[in-house]
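User: Sequence recovery, please. Input:
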């Protein structure tokens, strides 16, 4: 943790943790207490129209505290971590210029890494190569992961075979450059970070988290996730659009198409969300910067945030 007064870099409070751990409610309460604005680091909430499945803050919550990087992209846009870092960096500048503090909250570890440390200069996307790898991933994701393990064992060791997006990207980089993506990332880690930050992880026991995921999933479908997907399709959104492949939406899409019933859609969404939560925890637990605090103790988070910024220190940039 950076002590106030030792750096001139902007300071950010970063809340991390698995899906359904309570990031939205905790960030909201902290923002109200600390005079902060919230930057969302969620890979689906950036898309317009994808509301229920991404568990976006409600209009009431956004009315209480200003939120950023929500409803930015059209569904067909390939919104990247690099784009997130660029826009989030601008938002940080705007928030600080207003004399407010900055809280970043989200479960996308890649988005957070891009914002806090930047990204290495990767080759541009080769659409034909990506389409070829994506087709192979649909046929056999394990085989694609095994191929990655042969050329970049370090990257393969940290990527789940089901994480097709990152497995494909790692293979793309190798096939385009002849160098493993882990080599680029290792070199990049020595660059200076853009911000001083405190990462606080929200710790929730596995049983409680599983119950929250199940309850939230049922509420999403009861609130009209199927109808939201129907409306998106009727508005012309491509079923192959990136956010349509996210958890909850791909199951709702199968429901709309009549491939499964609602009970099965709910069951699959719960299962996949629990798997996502496990992957997120693996990612964040590997980050030595994260200080884990009990999710049912908001005062501990508030105390840590105040210590980070310093008492009565609203603009210690």
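Assistant: Recovered sequence (317 residues):
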């Amino acid at each position: 943790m950076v002590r106030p007064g030792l750096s001139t870099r902007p300071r950010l409070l970063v809340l991390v943790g698995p899906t359904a751990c309570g990031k939205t409610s905790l960030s909201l309460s902290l923002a109200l207490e600390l005079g902060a604005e919230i930057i969302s680091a969620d890979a689906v909430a950036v898309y317009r129209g994808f509301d229920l499945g991404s568990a976006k803050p409600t209009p009431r919550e956004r009315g209480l505290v200003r939120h950023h990087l929500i409803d930015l992209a059209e569904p067909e846009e390939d919104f990247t971590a690099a784009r997130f870092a660029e826009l989030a960096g601008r938002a940080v500048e705007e928030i600080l210029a207003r004399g407010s503090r900055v809280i970043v909250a989200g479960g996308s570890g890649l988005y957070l890494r891009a914002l806090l440390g930047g990204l290495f200069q990767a080759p541009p996307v080769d659409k034909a190569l990506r389409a070829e790898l994506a087709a192979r991933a649909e046929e056999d994701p394990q085989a694609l992961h095994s191929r990655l393990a042969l050329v970049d064992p370090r990257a393969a060791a940290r990527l789940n075979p089901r994480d097709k997006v990152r497995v494909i990207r790692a293979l793309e980089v190798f096939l385009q450059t002849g160098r493993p993506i882990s080599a680029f990332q290792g070199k990049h880690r020595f660059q200076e970070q853009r911000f001083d930050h405190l990462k606080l992880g929200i710790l929730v026991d596995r049983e409680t988290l599983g119950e929250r995921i199940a309850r939230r999933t049922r509420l999403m479908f009861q609130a009209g996730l199927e109808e939201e997907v129907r409306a998106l399709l009727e508005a012309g959104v491509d079923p192959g659009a990136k956010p349509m492949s996210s958890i909850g939406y791909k199951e709702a899409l199968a429901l709309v198409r009549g491939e499964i019933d609602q009970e099965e859609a709910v069951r699959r969404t719960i299962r996949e969300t629990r798997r996502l939560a496990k992957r997120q925890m693996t990612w964040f637990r590997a980050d030595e910067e994260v200080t884990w605090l009990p999710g049912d103790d908001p005062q501990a988070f508030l105390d840590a945030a105040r210590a980070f910024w310093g008492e009565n220190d609203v603009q210690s940039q």
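The longest helix spans residues 262-285.
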